[in-house]
Structure formats: structure tokens, C-alpha cells
Write a structure and sequence with these properties.
Blueprint (H helix, E strand, L loop, with lengths): L8 E7 L17 H17 L4 E8 L2 H9 L3 E3 L7 H15 L4 E5 L8 H9 L5 E5 L6 E6 L13 H7 L3 E2 L6 H4 L5 H10 L3 H15 L7
Parallel strand pairs: 1-2, 1-4, 2-3, 5-7
Antiparallel strand pairs: 4-6, 5-6
Amino acid sequence: MSDVEVASWILVIPVKRTAIAKSRLAAAYPQHRPELAHAFAVDTTAAALDSPLVHAVLVVTDDPVVAADVTAVGARVVPDLPGVGLNEALEHGAAIAAADYPGMGVAALSADLPALRPAELSAALAASTADRSFVIDQPGTGTTMLAAGPGVPLDPRFGVGSALAHQASGAHPIELTSIDSVRRDVDTAADLAHAVQLGVGPRTADVMSLVLGAATGSEGLAC
């Protein structure tokens, strides 16, 4: 699993309907929150597909607009048939990945990584040499990626305090110092500001241009 020239991973990315996603951004971006959530998901998916370690990306979503756009960049869409929560959606996607791509590892990846760099994702996947490994988010309490080797159940424990929950379940934290873009998920305006400093993908950059136009009153930019 350490050879970055071999596409040996299937990534599962869960995406909420953007009408309700990223609620903590609503105060700072009341007009553009749904567009930002949408852009995060598409940029994350596109960057993941550019990693040479990634064989395929399964996006678990019931949002038809997100489904169309991630399909356009090369992902496979899986309907969220459980429809009851994040971990259930991930288990559903992981089961399909294991059945359809035998012999490959399966990794759950957050959909809100707009600054994701393919090389840093590859480094994190290459470091996932334990049966189950995970990346701790920038604040240090959550999880942005959970990887399980071939034939190993993913057993996701996402939610509040997921870093401790994943470690308690036997997953090993990935201790790399150069994967900031993999750790930078976006829940708040401060998170987004940091992601912009790192350099966001094109869809998120486009929405941020709209935000700037709305703030300055520039013609043709405000929504």
C-alpha cells in the first residue's frame, strides 16, 4: 500500500443535501452557504480523483445537483439508501466498494476539504499501513479520513469526538506533518479562511469570488 504509483484505494465521500449542509457557515455566508457546501464536495472529489493511489471515488448522496457534478468529474454516485446518518451512509458506500472492487482498501473521506491536495492525500493513504488508520482534523478532535485495508471492515465512528472514538476502536492515527490540506475540513468561517490561505479548488474559489462581489457590491458578482 505504500507505492503511490498503484491505484489501490476506493474512496467513499458522503455528501449531505446542500440545502441543509454546513449550517455553521450560515451566519457568515447566509446567501452562499449551500453553494459553498456544493463547491466543497466537488473540489474534494476532483482532488481525490487526481491522487494516483485512488482507483475510484464513490460519492454517497441524495443531492441531484451534487450527483451530476461529481459524476462529471469522474466519480461514481451511490444513493444514500439508509438515509439515517453519516456513519450508516459510509457503511453503505463501503459495502458497495468492497463488493465491487475486491482486493482494494476502502477509505472514508470528508466532503468538506476544499483545499485538498492530491499529493498530500496520496501521502496519507500511503501511510495507512495498519488494518485501520485515520487522519485527525486540524482542531485535533475530529476525523477527516478513515482508511481500512482490503477485507477489513471500515467501522466508521464519525461525529463529535471521532478522533478518540476511532482510536478507541483500534484505528491508528496517521502522524504526518505535511498533510495540512487533508486535515483542513471546513465547518466555520475561520476554517474557510484558513482553507483559502492554503489554496482552495476552483469551484470554491468561484463561490468565494461571488462572496467578495456581494460584500463589495460589484456588479455581476453578487447573487
